[in-house]
Amino acid sequence: MDRITVSATIRDTAHVTAEDYRRLYEESLNDPEEFWAHQKERIHWFTSPQKIKNTSFSGDVSIKWFEDGILNASYNCIDRHLPEKENQIALIWEGDDPADDASVTYGDLLLHVSRMANLLKSIGVKKGDRVTLYMPMILEASYAMLACARIGAIHSVIFGGFSPEAIAGRLDDCQSDFIITANEGVRGGKVVPLKANVDRALDILEESYGKSVKKVVVVYHTETETACDPDRDVNYNAVIGTLEDTCPAEPMNAEDPLFILYTSGSTGKPKGVLHTTGGYMVWASMTHEYVFDYKPGEIYWCTADVGWITGHSYILYGPLANGATSLMFEGVPNYPSSSRFWQVVDKHKVNIFYTAPTAIRALMREGDGPVKATDRSSLRILGSVGEPINPEAWSWYHRVVGEERCPIVDTWWQTETGGILISPLPGATDLKPGSATKPLFGVQPALVDAEGHFLEGATEGNLVMVDSWPGQMRTIYGDHERFKQTYFSTYEGLYFTGDGCRRDEEGYYWITGRVDDVINVSGHRMGTAEVESALVAHEQVSEAAVVGYPHDIKGQGIYAYVTCVEGCTPDEALLKQLIQWVRSEIGPIASPDFIQFTPALPKTRSGKIMRRILRKIAENEYKNLGDTSTLADPAVVDSLIDNRLNR
Ligand code: PRX
């Protein structure tokens, strides 16, 4: 499809026009000090920073923004909007059941967050402590995050789909003594036993790591009773009414940690990505306002879960820093029907809607009917995030959902980047379906070849960032060495994103996907190494290799090649057991779509698994395997192809 030019209606009221974009982008590169000294004003500082940027991608890699500034993220999301926005709705909650909804004003948000903050203090949480959240998409999840920020505790949110094993590993990694959870979550009519998972995680924490936590706060979201350890568990609903409803916002240095969020890499266990306070807040606020062209009074809905970075930056911190009304959705796109998203849009008169390509593709498969049964006339801007969006899905989203009226902002970014780095701006950028288009202010992308040489003009290569931006992660919690190794050692002095990318003649960026051993399943990021180590932890498995393959709905699916131990004859029962095993080791999002049992894996003579070949076979491209001359035993490949799963 051709380019779609900026609509006059959008442009005439937009925060940023094409002319503004050119001017400000240039200014942000030529004079970052001046540009960010101005942008920092969007945040309330108890002490305004004098030092703006102090960053180095070389040597020990040190990233500091606004380093002498003092602020508080919760204050910026709540108090600073008062009393003007006392009665404006801050958060709308839409339950899994269409009959359930609620909303909270900025005035009420202050009370809820202050009480939660006082509860945390009363159980012994102090500034700098790590508090783990394992929550469903309920208002209390946002109270908990903001309460941590209010008292200077560092939250570590774990997505509700992760298993007890995964929770235990993360609790151990950041030495967290406190957990906030709910008795149960509900999604698509199904119950998620969150508290039971936490209890199991705590058993594992003790058995495998010899550790325990001090307190577990339990929010009762459903009627179901759960097991309770009276010395350890605190019933939120029972105590919250007894707590003071004021709590001062702790003055935090701009570089004090705000949160840790675990994400997968190509090797090893998940990394605790650490974000700090000042730069992150400036970035979340600026990108939310410009990318979504947010105007006061608009209803904004990001469908992500707060367990992912998108939920952190674009349900909570960005929108609330801007005094927006942000919608939080507990449910799923197809429950009770495939019209659900659009019914919610109509019910709450949503103006800006931000979701993932996997949801678009799943809904597209149901045809236009469920969309057309709804009105959607409130919609003004549509957004996409998490994985490349194929032009077909893009066009359907644009034509059917947005009725060709709403620009689509295809936003490229990562857990590590804190917020959006490459995206159209609705009033400034002509759109090309499938392209994340242009860098935001202060963002300097470049494409390099395998040796790190810069590639100019229209070309394809690996995507790096040449310089820092305020929202960038600062380190991997507790492992700065791994931080340097992961992001700054592939190309000296450059931040390596792990993504491949094409740039066209007009300087538009087209992300092609990961070039490392990370796969993206339904927008969920997964390390193939993690799934492999889960598989080999099973007693019948001797070796495993996991690769991604193209999947119509999920973007990528998980294909596992498994070699069993001597004497084991793999069968249907073992296959089912292994899938269940991975679900319990990591979580349902890591379930392999296919497991191919094989007597051996293709290896080089030095014993390295040749993943390139495994990828090709999984993609059904086995006729085009490339160079196989370094294989130790070429017969292995023939046998893999002969026995490849019939798909
Ligand atoms: O490969 C890119 C893909 O998602 C990766 C980051 O995943 P995560 O840290 O989980 O963050 C997801 C939400 C920001 C990236 O390295 N990705 C994200 N957005 C896009 C994308 N790929 C193409 N287009 C996008 N808009």
Automatic annotation (TrEMBL):
Annotated positions binding CoA: R187, G188, G189, K190, T310, N334, S522, R583
Keyword Heme: no
Domain AMP-dependent synthetase/ligase, first and last residues per copy: 82-465
CDD domains the record matches: ACS
Pfam families: ACAS_N, AMP-binding, AMP-binding_C
Gene3D superfamilies referenced in this protein's UniProt entry, alphabetically: 3.30.300.30, N-terminal domain of ligase-like
A GO CC term attached to the entry: cytosol
Residues involved in ATP binding: G386, E387, P388, D410, T411, W412, W413, Q414, T415, D499, R514, R525
Every AMP-binding enzyme C-terminal domain range: 530-608
Top EC group: ligase
InterPro entries: Ac_CoA_lig, ACAS_N, AMP-bd_C, AMP-bd_C_sf, AMP-binding_CS, AMP-dep_synth/lig_dom, ANL_N_sf
GO MF, one annotated term: metal ion binding
Function comment: Catalyzes the conversion of acetate into acetyl-CoA (AcCoA), an essential intermediate at the junction of anabolic and catabolic pathways. AcsA undergoes a two-step reaction. In the first half reaction, AcsA combines acetate with ATP to form acetyl-adenylate (AcAMP) intermediate. In the second half reaction, it can then transfer the acetyl group from AcAMP to the sulfhydryl group of CoA, forming the product AcCoA.
NCBIfam families: Ac_CoA_lig_AcsA (TIGR02188), PRK00174.1 (NF001208)
Similarity-based family: Belongs to the ATP-dependent AMP-binding enzyme family.
HAMAP family linked: Ac_CoA_synth
Protein name as it appears in the record: Acetyl-coenzyme A synthetase
Taxonomic source organism: Temperatibacter marinus
